[in-house]
Each structure stands twice: as structure tokens, then as C-alpha cells.
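Hello,

Following up on my earlier ticket. Below are the three sequence lines again, exactly as submitted.
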Amino acid sequence: MTPVAAVRDAGLAALVAFGLFAPLVGLRTDVVEGGLALRGRWDDVAWLVLLAFVGRLALLLLAGRRLPRLTLPAPLARAGQYAAPFFLGLALLLPWLPFIERYELDLGILVLTYVMLGWGLNIVVGLAGLLDLGYVAFYAVGAYSYALLSLTYGLSFWVCLPLAGILAAFAGVLLGFPVLRLRGDYLAIVTLAFGEIIRVVLTNWTELTGGPNGLSGIPRPGLFGLSFTSEEGGFADFFGLDYDPVHRVIFLYYLILGLALLTNWVTLRLRRQPLGRAWEALREDEIACRALGINVTVTKLTAFAIGAMFAGFAGSFFATRQAFVSPESFTFIESAIILAIVVLGGMGSQLGVAVAALLLIGGTELFRDLAEWRMLIFGAAMVVIMVVRPRGLVGTRTPSIALGEKRAIGGTYVSEGH
Amino acid sequence: MILDVEELTMRFGGLTAVHAVSFQAWGGEITALIGPNGAGKTTVFNCITGFYRPSGGKLTLFGRNGEVALQKLAGHRIARAGVARTFQNIRLFPGMTVLENLLVAQHNRLMAATGWGIGAVLGLSRYPAAEAEALERAKHWLNATQLLDRADDPAGALPYGAQRRLEIARAMCTEPVLLCLDEPAAGLNPRESDELSALLLQIRAQGTSILLIEHDMGVVMKISDHVVVLDHGRKIADGTPAEVRADAKVISAYLGEGDEDEAA
Amino acid sequence: MAYALQQLINGVSLGMIYGLIAVGYTMVYGIIGMINFAHGDVFMVGAFVSLITALLLGLGGGAAGPGALLLVLLAGMSVTALYGWTVERVAYRPLRGSFRLAPLISAIGMSILLQNYVQVAQGARVKPTGTLVPGGVTLMETDGFAVQFSYVQMLIIVVTLAVLAGFTVLVTRTPMGRAMRACEQDRKMAALLGINTDRIISLTFVIGAALAAVAGCMYLLRYGVIDFYIGFLAGVKAFTAAVLGGIGSLPGAVLGGLLIGLIETFWSAYFSAQYKDVAAFSILILTLVLMPSGLLGRQEVEKV
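Thanks for your patience. The regenerated structure is below:
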């Protein structure tokens, strides 16, 4: 493209930017005594227009008309095989690294929770190809199951954990049954509706769930009966340590790491088994599956149920960590974030999901001081990553079995489900 | 007898695509279903393999476990009863390797060996032996279809002819008593067609009966034991290739379509 | 009876708003087969632009004349159309023809982006405008219950019908509309016949956004208060309307919108207002499960 044409195109972009930003950025509505007032912010508009012009010009001159698809350079791609052991080692040693304080550990717990949720949803979306936008509902079922069971019956965390998983899996089957015949976007929207129904019910069924105020005072888990408190007989006392609240955080960190690794282990194992292969076959071609005698209904339901079960585990963990649950934690945006992690990671890739969770959750945490900008940047990042890498970070599929050497399968062959 | 089709009728709204068609397929034979475009061949296939529920009539399979009324079974149960099929527009699992395609075909047997997933996760059960057996079966059919060297390639990357062969291999891995092939020679060059004929004869020799829809009369006349001709949803002829070739109704049905060569 | 009549009026005027948004969903789905997840937020942008224009014209709090209202509507439509165009250009066009989930994720990202952009630019507080079109007529009065048909509701119904009539003429009677319908049937073929499909798709987004802006403006007039989050719920309900009517069908979208508006209003009036969203969502699920092609949609036969 000639520089003149590029400048003209960039000028057009600036004009569009002016049209977009002049009303919404240039004129801010302020709530004042007796109504609303407008306040001009034309310098901001000028900056944005300039940014649009320069950005577009740079893009045109450097990259040509089309945005480049980002491909990983070969050495980096080869380094990929060391990435999994590296991240695993890092995750295991994290609490003992010198610069790790309480804040970093909390962030680690948060990231790992999303890694686990991403891995759980990956079973449904990445392997079975069932687009689920209501995954947070199962997370909520797990969280409330634990909260209610422990508050009402005084059951311990370790008893509630499997129960919460089973209840969430049950919810998964409950949702799965009616939507079996639906495909793609329709399935996405129905699961979204299901998630919202659960949230509305949690908000309004005040007698059971505490309504919008939620449930508080949820018991904390202990380690083999040792509680993480300063009392006698607690963890610190038993091991003769000085009581330190960080003990509990480290314990929670390893708990979620363990749960996440369990999710990963089960998934990797199932992928090499007939069930996992049937999930992937279902993603590739449902009709062919039927012709081969695979019970499509049961296969889909197992994917929903197992995916939901891990969300239920993660939900119990969430409840016990926060000691508090309320419907606010289970909005649609959570489902969208988890789905974004799966898709950005590269569908079906365990490593990709983990890296995507680290990037998205850890990355936006960097902007925590810009509270309201955080989600704005998050949304923009989703768009940009999709545009430059529509197949996600790991765009290839590893075969589950091979006669010779396992070679990665290029993304163009792999279907995205239905 | 392997399959008995009695008065099979299929209506879509007001349109009757298949009208009271009856024929038999005999065990150990290749039965060809031919007819001009739109004659209802694929519809008959879809009824037999459970993709459509017939509006009327009976479909009886004489399988390994006795008589089965196919018209009452769900799609995946028909496959389990011993009917395998391929599709006119190939339906492989393109993102999975050739070998994986063949293992998916053995899903039910493998699944039973894993104790329905639970044992497999724990690493218990008879699974390793079952998997080794499944691999052997896959290798056998890879050999038969000359795909052994492509076993670890994604199915979607195979050339067209190889994809056709893979689909047949995959169907055979379900160990069917009746193999239904929907235009297996479509798009193949003459050499590939000959290889296909040889493969089908080999499958027959191993004891699997074949029901075949085909437009390539060269293939049909060479390998079929028995030919059923459909036109406008009705059966117009039924007999050996030689009988059908001489049948006046068949000739006029094809000539009416203006396709002299195919009838010849 | 009087109570039911009142609910009917309320439901129809609410349903018109849903219908206008639903048309945008159905058009985009028809032409490129994706759920434009950001459409609800485009509607929200439309409401905000209308609000800002109204304030610019000095309409805050007082009654507005027809000329001023028309200006508000036109400003809302043109700026929002520009937003619709930009969203398609930036977030969807680069992904055309790629992996099918990518545009959906991109759309969800766009939805989050628009929501938070408006929150940052305009603040998180709700914006009350007061009544811009006060008054109405009392249709009947029985047992102390007066059935009110407000001017706002009349305005909503009249404007919506006028806009939809214009839109129908555009789609059915003009060469541009024919090109749009051709793209909807078969985009590749349309491109081979010399239709600039990129332009038609852009146009679809522009028109859809303009209709959403009308809905946003009407929403503002009806409720007199908006915030940056109104797009999500309205979007999901309008999508429900589009599905209920049969996705891809324009009259279906309007019909679906009316039904959702009526169901929601009657549900709140006779059962429970808290669970009105559950009613809408349940209808969505039931429709998709029992009648996936909707009321007026085309039946899809599974090809083997």
C-alpha cells in the first residue's frame, strides 16, 4: 500500500474514531442535583482520534492490509515440550520461592482455580465439542452444596467434596438431557440461559440460599482433622510451629493444585481411553459416531457430567476458601471467562488452557489498580487474541495413540464441534 | 438370508420417496441397489441403518444373535446389531489419525473392557489386552486397504481415494454381518475402482455380506451376485446382473434419464 | 379484565423493544450464521447516545417536542450504526471463514469491551432522565382501576411499526435488500454473482445497530433510567425472541419479541416479578428443545 493511500485510510479511521468517541467520551453525563448534566472532555477525544490515526497508519505500513496471523517461531514451538514440566515444577515450588508473599500465593490460588475450571470445561468444549456457556452454574452448585451441607449438617470438607461433585454432575446430566439435540450456538445460548436460571434462583430463594446476601461462616477445611487456627491442637501446635495465617494459605494453595492436577490426570487418562476417543469423535462427526454404534446420548451426558463434576469440586474449594458464597460470584461473565480460557488456550490442549488461564487471570491482575479498566482490557484482549490467533495458543491436536511416532495434527483438520 | 426388506415405505411430508419396496439380501453375497438419481436408494439405506424411521414396512436382519427388527431400533443399536455403513459424502473423523478412526469404530467392545470408563481411569481391568486386540484388528484392515503407512496421519489429510478406503476399513472394524456402502466408487479413477472391487470381494470372502449402492455399472456388474433396481421409489427389477441388464423396464428407466452408458 | 388490558398494553410496548433488537440478531444470524453477542451492548450504546443527545438538546427533565425527539432518534441511530459497523470490521471480519468458535469468543470479548467502555466513559452510576414524554389517556376505569395508555407507549408502538415498515420495504423492495437476501441464502454463490458480500454484511450490521438504537431510545423514554449493564439482559431476551420466532425470519423476530414482552409482563403481573427472567429463559430452553426452528423459521432436515 502506498503511503498516500495509507494516510488516507488512517484519516478515515480517525474520522470513524471521532464519530465513535465524540458522543460517548466527549460528553460525559454526570448525575447532579435535580437531574443530569453534560461535561465536555474533548482533549480525551482528541487523544483517542490521534491514537486511531497513528495506530491504523502503523498497522497499514508495517503489516499491510490484513492483520497477521501470529505463528510461533520454530524454536519456541520446540521449547513447548519443556513447558509442561516447567510449569508443573513452578507450581509445586511456588510457596517456597523467596519472593512469594501472601499476595502472590492468593493470586496463585486464583489462577489455579481457573486452570481447574478451564480443564473441566475443556472436557465438554475442547474434547466433546459441546459449546457450554453456562459452566458457572455447576461451579455454583458445587459451592452452594458445600456451603449448605457443612452449615446444615456440619459435614467436613472432605466428606462434602465428593458430594458436591456428585451433585454438580447430577446438575450436568439434568442440563444435558434436554439439550442433547442442540448444536453449536443454540447449545451455547441454552446453557447460558440455564446458568442464569440457577443464578436467579440462588438470588431469590432466600430461605435456602440467603438470597443476595449469600451464606457466610462456611467452615474452613482442616488437614487430617488439624485446623489452621492458633488454638491448641491446631496444625501449628501439632507440628510445634509458631502459628502463622500463611499456613492456611499454603494449605489451600496445595489443595487447589491437587484438585487441578486431579482434573488434568483424569482428562489425560480418559483421552487415551475409548470414552475420551468417543468424545473427540463426537466433536468430529456425530452422524458417523451413530453409524459406528456409539451411543451419542450417553457419551454426551458423560462429558457434561464429568465436566460438571470438576466444576463442583472447584466450587466447593471456592466456598471453603472464601468462607462465603453469594450469587454475585456466579454471573455469566465467569462462564465467559472460563470459555475464553479454553478457546484461547487452544481447544483440547491441557497446556494451552493452563497458559491461557495464567495469561488472562494473572495478566488482568496486573491492572488491578485500574479497577474499572481491568475488564475493558480483558474484553479487548479476548478480541485481539482471537483475531491474531483464532485457533488459540496451542492450535494442534496430539493423537491419543500411534503405531509409530505421535505427530501433532494441524488445526485445519480438527473440527471445533457442533 | 441376511436382510429381509418387506414393503418398506418412507414418506417425507407429502412426498413418498420409497414406495412399498421389498427385496432380500442373501448371506455371503454382494447385493447391489441401483437406479437413476432420485430413485430412493439412499433413503432405503438410511432406513436400514437407522437414520430415518420408516413410515411403513418391516426390516429384518438375520444377525449373529438371530432375527432383529431394524425398523424399531435406535441408530446406534442397529450398528451394534451388525450393520455398518459408509456415506455418500465421506464422513471420517478428519482431525483424528487413521488409527484413531479405526479404534473409535471398536468403541463398544473397548468400552465394555474398560468397565465403562471407571476401571480404565484407575488402570484396572482387561483393558490392555482388549486394546492390543483392537490394534491388531485395526492393523489387519489397514493392511487390507493399503493404509498401514498412513496410520498416524490425520484422516483429513488423506487423498480422496484413501479416505474412501479408510471409511470401509472403519466400518469393517465394527465387525458387521452386513456392510452397507453408499456409492463407494464415486470419484475413484479406474485403477482405484478395480482395487475397490478386489477389496469388496475379499470382504465377502471373509463372510460379511454387502449391500451396495453404486452408479459405476462396471463395478456393479463385475462383483454383484444380485441386483435390485429402483425407480421413482419403486422396485422395478430384481435378479442376477445378467437378468437385470436384459430387463426392458430397467433399460427404459435409464434411457428415460438419458443415461445410455450407465445401463449398458 | 381492566388489569389484563393494562398488562396487554405494557406487554406490547415492551415486546416492541425486544422485537427491534431481535431483528438485529436474526439478520446477522441469517447472513453469517453467528450470534452477535455484542448486539445487546450495541443497544445499550444506542440508549446512551440517545440520552446524551437529549441532554445536548436541553431535554433533561422536561417534556420534549416531536422535532427534538426525532433528532434524538436520528443521532442515536447514526452513531450506533457506526458502532455496529466498527464492531463488525474490527472483531468479526478478520475472523470470517476461520474456526467457528473464534467469532463467538470475539463477540463475547466485544460485549465485555463495550460494557466496560461505557462504564469507564460514562460512569457506573445509573442515569435517570426523568419523564421526557409525560401524560397519556385513560382508556377505561372500572372498580377504581384505571387503564392507562401513556403517550410514551403510543410513541413506542407507532415508531416501532414505522421503522419496521421502512425496514421491510428496504429488505423486500430494493436491490440492496435483494442482495442481502441472496447473501442469506448462499453467500458464496452471491459473491460469485458479483455481489460485494463484505459490503452487504457491513450493511447488515449497520441496519441491525440502527434498529437497536431505536430500541435503545424507546427504552430510555419508557423507563427514564439507564445504565451500562442494560444490554446483557435485554440482549438475551431479544435473542430468545429471535429464536422463538424462528431465527433468520424477520417477521418471526418481531412476533417473538411481542410474545416475550407479553409473557414477561403477564408473568410479573400474575405470578412473581422476581422470577420473570426465569420465565423468559425457560421459554428459550423449551423453544429450542421442543421446536428448534421456532414459530416462523424454516425446518432444517438433517442431511446424511
